[in-house]
Amino acid sequence: MSFSAIFVQLLNGLASASSLFLVAAGLSLIFGVTRIVNFAHGSLYMLGTYTAYSLVQWFGGGIPGFWSGVLLSGVIVGLFGALVERLLLRRLYHAPELLQLLATFALVLIISDFTLWAWGPEDLLGPRAPGLAGAISIAGRRFPEYDLFLILLGPLVLGLLWLLLTRTRWGTLVRAATEDREMAGALGVNQAWLFTSVFALGSFLAGLGGAIQIPREPAVLTMDLSILSDVFVVVVVGGMGSIPGAFLAAVIIGVLKAMCIGIGNVHAFGIDFSFSKLTLVVEFIVMAVVLVIRPWGLFGRSQGAPRAASTEPPLNLPSPALQKLLLAGLIMLALLPLASDRYTLVLMTDILVFALFAVSLHFIMGPAGMHSFGHAAYFGLGAYAAALLFKHVLPMELALALAPFAAGLGALLFGWFCVRLSGVYLAMLTLAFAQIAWSVVYQWDSFTGGSNGMVGVWPAQWLASKTTFYYLALVLCAGGTMVLWRILYSPFGYGLRAGRDSPLRADAIGIDVRRQQWLGFALAGTFAGLAGAVYAFSKGSISPDALSIPRSVDGLVMVLMGGIQTLTGAVAGAAVFTWLQDSISRQTEFWRALLGGIILFLVLVFPQGIAGFIRERWEARSGRSEA
Amino acid sequence: MTVLRVSDLCKSYGGVQAVCNVSFSLDAGEILALIGPNGAGKTTCFNLLNGQIAADSGSAEFEGRSLIGMQPREIWRLGVGRTFQITATFGSMSVRENVQTALLNFHGKLTSIVTLAGRLYVDEAMALLERVGIAAQAERPCGVLAYGDLKRVELAIALANHPHLLLMDEPTAGMAPTERVALMQLTAELARASSIAVLFTEHDMDVVFAHADRILVLNHGTLIAEGKPAEVRANRQVQEVYLGSGSVYGAAHGAEHA
Amino acid sequence: MNALARSTTVKILQRSEIVYILALTDRARDGGHQPPGTRSESSVDDVNLREKDMTLRRTFLLGTAALAMSAVFSGPAAAQSTIKIGEINSYKTFPAFLEPYKKGWELALEEINKSGGLLGKKVEVISRDDSGKPGDAVRVAEELVSRENVSLLMGAFASHVGLAISDFAKQRKTLYIAAEPLTDQIVWNKGNHYTFRLRPSTYMQVAMLVPDAAKLNKKRWAIVYPNYEYGQSATAGFKKLLSAKQPGVEFVSEQAPALGKIEAGAVVQALIDAKPDAIFSSLFGADLQKFVREGTQRGLFKGRPTFNLLAGEPEYLDTLKDETPAGWYVTGYPWEQINTPEHKKFLAAYQAKWKDYPRLGSIVGYSTLMSAAEAIKKAGSTDTEKMIAAMKGMQMDSPLGKFSYRALDHQSTMGAYVGRLALKDGKGVMVDWKYSNGADFLPSDADVKAMRPAE
In chain A, which residues have their Cβ closer than 8 Å to the Cβ of C267? Predict the structure, then answer.
């Protein structure tokens, strides 16, 4: 690359960074103050783009029409965000941790279907920005004027936010709440109003970030999720809650991507390497590196202990009644093939697989207190290990038996880094590793089959019938679930919970919390791998989506829906979520919105999760009968 | 027999000497109080000994082994038990299980995934709870316990590794006066019965002068006095330091120890 | 109400009935077991609270029971009075392409049933969304085959989903007609006895563009493609075919942005900096639109002939409106200009039914279902082996003209329109187009045989 080429690529990177920063700043503000991991932030961004498209069309071309349309879109999305906060999230601040995440996930589904309904399926390419539609010459190259405008907009918004946060009373309150929520509460801050206004501002920034995209890219229905992971990366790399951090991170990632593209293909030491292909995963590599070196991002600070630390309910051995119930459940599952058709067995096999997957995720999220956004990595590693072993060397039975250990090894490797972090940072590092693993699988055509995946991964002849395979899945998945549950009651499990309940105390009684967590992580990864291996053979094929973000999110949703504070919650969540997806996608075209609505309903009515709700009722009843 | 020997311990934060050239020693069965006004360096000194922060210079030897640079959990392995100013227990476990967890680790069982933890070392755990007087609450979850009882749970946990040294950070903070006396009496009995050396920091001078065998007084990071309660009480410098809050100790203690 | 909707309603009714019956029995049982005197002992509030609790819990338990019951009992219908065809697609993942696709097969379904159905029976298409996941696709495929007793499967958009269904079809010995997946693998190195594919594959569409590319005799080529199997195959195919026709051609830059996430400014800049004489792209969708906008603004396309697979398809072209890059060489579907009688007939019927113009997806949906119908008609049966035998070499009439399914590799010879883009009345159109027959752009039979696994 010539110097002028490097310079222009730098400008390209900065232009991309600006739009990323706007959206990320909103997310960072919201997280800093409310501690909500807002999955719907990408959806707000998408709404911004679509709204701007319509408004600009409606207002007609010309400079005033365009810019008022863009600004108004931001305002509309901001108001929508405030509404969401007041009507929905407000009810969930006292719910178990991460439940707001489930609510915002439901919003993603609903907003996505709403956008499809309101604007239709086709991509909508908005007009170029009037007054900035041309290009000027920089370093002998034509450079779009609008990109120059974006380059200036980023620092401008950063400056305005800085003034707002440092020079106004509101900003002081926001900063106080970001640093220490309890203290801000004690200072007499009207939290309700503060939260609403922060959510509104964050949503406004997301909406504006979406709106200013219309001269650059079309409004498409997938933009919500495609930007979501990017902005999370920016926020986490910068340090959650830090606006300058978000800016720096956006610049680093934007410029790095542009440089990778600029460098293109490199031929050195007899190897061809495409930096252009690296853009698939470069932001996640940046995030992994930053988090390993700086556990709270570039400008972030250690978050205090999560507020749920002292509220974990006791974990008692299942009562005899519950044991009987579980046994009865198992017997029913074992008898199911007598009374059901083939498809029920297939669906049940799926449910069993996802139940084990969710239980293994709950194992580290609940009792071990490590939130993971990348648990699909181990599910996928197990699935791919099974497929690869089966395709290349081993009979199916052995491949199935060994695959979980491959996943376990992966978890051992990634986990070593992850357990050094905590809270959202830990979760995001798991996500980074999952994405890196995903990109390798996605790219390595000759070994993993690349994006098309691998086919012909069918069980051995004697296991081929759906009934036999169902029993195999039942034995392995129910067995795996039992083993994981049992481990929680073992000394190892006590050590894990000790590390979650009070790291200080655990340390003081000689427990190596990190090692305990590390082994726990690997154990959970192994069982996720078992689920993945069973999955691969149940489907006959495997593709990279087995370790993609949506798979990880599915796991999270299952655990949270079922109730993170109950052991059986993950199973209930997996069953209900899988069943819902299967059945309602048949009933209506807008099944995603319906699914989102059902999840919202569950979140509001059973904030403690389905299993948590049942347990509460159970305890209330037995408590009454004792009295 | 000397259990703990500290010499010339120093720690500074950004040019401010938090702890400066502190030296003292502690014998088995002895109860030593570390006092001083707020900001005198008590907590820093304490955290230097339990491994939470690293010293700039100086040494701290426990039974002949240097504690400097060790992790808290390594220090625990040597036979040091701790309690915290704000109790730290495992909220999702019962009182008995809290103690069992400590015992499990003491017996090196924490990587076992086979047995049911709740059935291991039950007698030992109950014996410890018996010693601190809360065996009756063994099955209650820690989350619902009264604060005084939690302090006792912590003591039982701290005793699980048969420590030769107990480090207690403000052991009676947040407790009712009668409870304070009871807890410290219990501690003293345990220390004497098992020859455990106890080092504690404390704000409540009643507690200090009633139970400490010896007292160290810190001010601005340096040791300004050391000796038996009576000697310390008579120390001019100490009186000056405590003049502002002297009422606590002057009047009340004069009467009590007369 | 069409047949599909009707069958769904029946199911819902069955389910709600089960819930209702369960509710009744539960209420009766509960009443019977109510211990006498309970009420008088508790306060009124207590009773209310308790009742509320009970109701809630009961509702929940009932729900669960109903789920279990419906899962167990909603087995296949007893007698098959219709021929059922299972259709699987990622409707929610790729709505822009698949809504017209659905309209296409719905039109075909209507026509088939109007003309008396097949083998004297009405035809019913049971359609399922796979949420874009191969695992889900395989599950719903199993549902369609075992619970709905469909005679054959059709559909799929993304290649990995298509391959998963294809392998499932092989395992379950079920006929599968892949509609949209472009991957060469589905009929070649991962091809199987049970899978046929309608659309011209990546290789074929690339091959259709190569003659024009070779004619230009440009030396330095830059390539941009979405970084997954389709883009990789298109690029590999283009390089191989062009090199064969034009020895000494150079490929000076390759950009592989992630699907849907192109950094268009940087990519365009990098391509300009490589100073190519011509450009080959396989971008589509939002990536294509961003690429066009940035490329036009930065002058990438000036003096550089550009080839882009699929860019002439209305799904992608119409979004570009007045920014359509004139002069591009593309494959596509100039629906408003095709004057063959078979297309005119289709166009009229489609516009009458949907009050909308067809996209290429409409053709794909329509022709896939028509292929299935033809296979059943020709086989005279819904027996899988008979249908497969019928489909081998089967001749089809379609809106795009006649084509056949090759016995050799089960690939259809349906072609594509190759032409150039132009601007007309503020929107993009194809000009100088011709229909390239798929049969002319396939590798030799020996090559295909070598690639396809032995059956």
Answer: 261, 276
